Amino acid sequence: MAETVHAEPPLIAGDAVRVGEDGRPILIGSECADCASRVFPPVSVCPECMGENVSPVALGRNGRLYSYCTVHVAPRGWSVPYIAGYVDLPDGVRVFTHVVDAPEERLSMEMEVELTTAVLGTGGDGEAFSSYAFRPRGAESEDA
User: Fold this and answer.
1) Which of 48, 106, 114, 132 is most buried by its number of CB atoms within 10 A?
2) Helix, coil or strand: residue 55
3) pTM, rounded to two decimals
4) What are the pLDDT digits (tens) for 47-66?
Protein backbone atom coordinates (compact mmCIF):
# COMPACT_ATOMS: atom_id res chain seq x y z
CA MET A 1 0.00 0.00 0.00
CA ALA A 2 1.22 3.55 -0.71
CA GLU A 3 2.48 5.59 2.21
CA THR A 4 0.59 8.81 3.00
CA VAL A 5 2.67 11.98 3.09
CA HIS A 6 2.03 15.70 3.01
CA ALA A 7 3.61 17.22 -0.12
CA GLU A 8 6.99 15.55 0.40
CA PRO A 9 8.63 14.24 -1.69
CA PRO A 10 7.84 16.51 -4.63
CA LEU A 11 4.42 16.11 -6.27
CA ILE A 12 4.41 14.87 -9.87
CA ALA A 13 0.92 16.06 -10.81
CA GLY A 14 1.98 19.31 -12.50
CA ASP A 15 -0.73 21.98 -12.56
CA ALA A 16 -3.39 19.51 -11.37
CA VAL A 17 -2.54 19.79 -7.67
CA ARG A 18 -1.33 22.51 -5.35
CA VAL A 19 -0.56 22.61 -1.67
CA GLY A 20 -2.78 24.99 0.27
CA GLU A 21 -1.70 27.33 3.04
CA ASP A 22 -2.83 24.68 5.53
CA GLY A 23 -0.37 22.17 3.99
CA ARG A 24 -3.18 20.06 2.51
CA PRO A 25 -3.40 19.29 -1.21
CA ILE A 26 -5.92 21.00 -3.48
CA LEU A 27 -6.99 19.53 -6.82
CA ILE A 28 -7.08 22.07 -9.63
CA GLY A 29 -9.46 21.48 -12.50
CA SER A 30 -10.96 23.71 -15.15
CA GLU A 31 -14.33 25.43 -15.29
CA CYS A 32 -15.91 26.57 -18.54
CA ALA A 33 -17.42 30.06 -18.45
CA ASP A 34 -19.59 29.20 -21.47
CA CYS A 35 -21.32 26.01 -20.29
CA ALA A 36 -20.31 25.88 -16.57
CA SER A 37 -18.91 22.34 -16.79
CA ARG A 38 -15.96 21.38 -14.60
CA VAL A 39 -13.28 18.85 -15.48
CA PHE A 40 -10.14 17.31 -14.03
CA PRO A 41 -7.29 17.52 -14.85
CA PRO A 42 -7.17 21.13 -16.08
CA VAL A 43 -7.65 21.67 -19.82
CA SER A 44 -7.42 24.58 -22.26
CA VAL A 45 -10.52 23.56 -24.26
CA CYS A 46 -13.80 22.49 -22.67
CA PRO A 47 -14.58 18.87 -23.60
CA GLU A 48 -18.34 19.54 -23.31
CA CYS A 49 -18.80 22.58 -25.58
CA MET A 50 -15.32 22.91 -27.15
CA GLY A 51 -15.15 26.48 -25.80
CA GLU A 52 -11.80 28.03 -24.93
CA ASN A 53 -13.18 30.23 -22.16
CA VAL A 54 -11.91 27.99 -19.34
CA SER A 55 -10.14 28.92 -16.15
CA PRO A 56 -8.56 27.05 -13.22
CA VAL A 57 -10.85 26.11 -10.35
CA ALA A 58 -10.17 24.46 -6.99
CA LEU A 59 -12.15 21.25 -6.62
CA GLY A 60 -13.51 19.66 -3.45
CA ARG A 61 -11.32 17.57 -1.15
CA ASN A 62 -14.04 15.04 -0.32
CA GLY A 63 -15.93 12.64 -2.52
CA ARG A 64 -17.34 9.13 -2.91
CA LEU A 65 -15.53 6.10 -4.25
CA TYR A 66 -17.19 5.19 -7.55
CA SER A 67 -15.12 2.10 -8.41
CA TYR A 68 -11.70 0.56 -7.70
CA CYS A 69 -9.38 -2.37 -8.42
CA THR A 70 -5.97 -3.65 -7.35
CA VAL A 71 -3.18 -3.14 -9.88
CA HIS A 72 -0.31 -5.63 -9.86
CA VAL A 73 1.72 -4.39 -12.86
CA ALA A 74 3.01 -0.83 -13.18
CA PRO A 75 5.81 1.19 -14.75
CA ARG A 76 9.32 0.67 -13.40
CA GLY A 77 9.76 2.32 -10.02
CA TRP A 78 6.08 2.37 -9.08
CA SER A 79 5.12 0.55 -5.87
CA VAL A 80 2.86 -2.46 -6.52
CA PRO A 81 0.33 -3.67 -5.78
CA TYR A 82 -1.71 -0.49 -5.49
CA ILE A 83 -5.39 0.36 -5.64
CA ALA A 84 -6.61 2.54 -8.50
CA GLY A 85 -10.07 3.98 -8.55
CA TYR A 86 -12.48 6.67 -9.58
CA VAL A 87 -13.79 9.22 -7.09
CA ASP A 88 -16.88 11.34 -7.70
CA LEU A 89 -16.59 14.86 -6.30
CA PRO A 90 -19.71 16.81 -5.26
CA ASP A 91 -19.28 19.27 -8.13
CA GLY A 92 -19.81 16.55 -10.74
CA VAL A 93 -16.16 15.78 -11.51
CA ARG A 94 -14.92 12.18 -11.60
CA VAL A 95 -11.22 11.77 -10.73
CA PHE A 96 -8.99 8.79 -11.59
CA THR A 97 -6.70 8.26 -8.61
CA HIS A 98 -4.74 6.01 -6.30
CA VAL A 99 -6.67 4.89 -3.22
CA VAL A 100 -4.48 4.59 -0.12
CA ASP A 101 -4.53 3.88 3.61
CA ALA A 102 -6.92 0.92 3.44
CA PRO A 103 -6.70 -2.62 2.07
CA GLU A 104 -9.11 -3.46 -0.75
CA GLU A 105 -11.32 -5.54 1.54
CA ARG A 106 -12.10 -2.41 3.61
CA LEU A 107 -13.21 -0.42 0.56
CA SER A 108 -16.73 -0.20 -0.78
CA MET A 109 -18.38 1.68 -3.56
CA GLU A 110 -19.97 4.96 -2.49
CA MET A 111 -17.82 5.15 0.66
CA GLU A 112 -16.69 8.64 1.64
CA VAL A 113 -13.09 9.45 0.77
CA GLU A 114 -10.83 12.46 1.20
CA LEU A 115 -7.94 13.95 -0.73
CA THR A 116 -4.38 13.34 0.45
CA THR A 117 -0.95 12.80 -1.08
CA ALA A 118 0.99 9.55 -1.19
CA VAL A 119 4.41 8.26 -2.21
CA LEU A 120 3.79 6.22 -5.36
CA GLY A 121 7.29 4.97 -6.13
CA THR A 122 10.76 6.11 -7.17
CA GLY A 123 12.05 7.77 -10.33
CA GLY A 124 15.05 6.77 -12.42
CA ASP A 125 17.28 8.76 -10.08
CA GLY A 126 16.12 6.67 -7.10
CA GLU A 127 14.28 9.61 -5.53
CA ALA A 128 10.75 9.00 -4.25
CA PHE A 129 7.85 10.79 -5.94
CA SER A 130 4.34 11.50 -4.74
CA SER A 131 1.02 12.59 -6.17
CA TYR A 132 -2.55 13.19 -5.12
CA ALA A 133 -4.52 10.22 -3.84
CA PHE A 134 -7.73 9.59 -1.95
CA ARG A 135 -8.22 7.62 1.26
CA PRO A 136 -11.27 6.59 3.28
CA ARG A 137 -12.47 9.49 5.42
CA GLY A 138 -10.90 9.25 8.85
CA ALA A 139 -8.35 6.63 7.70
CA GLU A 140 -5.51 8.58 9.29
CA SER A 141 -6.83 7.85 12.77
CA GLU A 142 -7.73 4.22 12.07
CA ASP A 143 -5.47 1.19 11.83
CA ALA A 144 -5.09 0.55 8.09
Assistant:
1) 132
2) strand
3) 0.85
4) 999 999 999 999 999 999 99
